[in-house]
Amino acid sequence: MIRILIFVSVALLVIIGIYLLKKATVFLPIMHNGEPDENKQFLHQFGVFYLILAAIGILVGIFNLKFFSLFYIFSLLVISAVFSVMFAKKIL
User: Fold this and answer.
1) Which residue ranges does UniProt annotate as crossing the membrane (predicted)?
2) Is this prediction's pTM over 0.85?
């Protein structure tokens, strides 16, 4: 069951990461705080983080070790929470 969750999260991370890298201009009008270049760099940075997490997730899903799977899910949640908080600060 954890393996399925990891592969689903990998698919979502790839989609979100590519979207943040290729379509960053969609989010720029709603980001009021900071310079446009700084905001674009912020979105690009987290797009790369998500793609790196997706690559790590593929390895974790293949090897299917319980400790690494749970640690991967925990780190995924932490990175997502950091992105959400930082993005909310830029919006408000």
Assistant:
1) 6-21, 42-63, 69-88
2) yes
Bin 31: left if φ > 0, else alpha if -120 < ψ < 50, else beta.
beta
* Residue labelled with tokens 């908080």: 85
Torsion, Cα of 18, 19, 23, 29 (10° steps):
-140
Within 13 Å, how many C-alpha atoms sit on residue 3's CB side? 6
Distance CA 24, CA 39 (A): 9
Give pLDDT tens digits for 14-65.
999 999 999 988 888 888 877 888 889 999 999 999 999 999 999 999 998 9
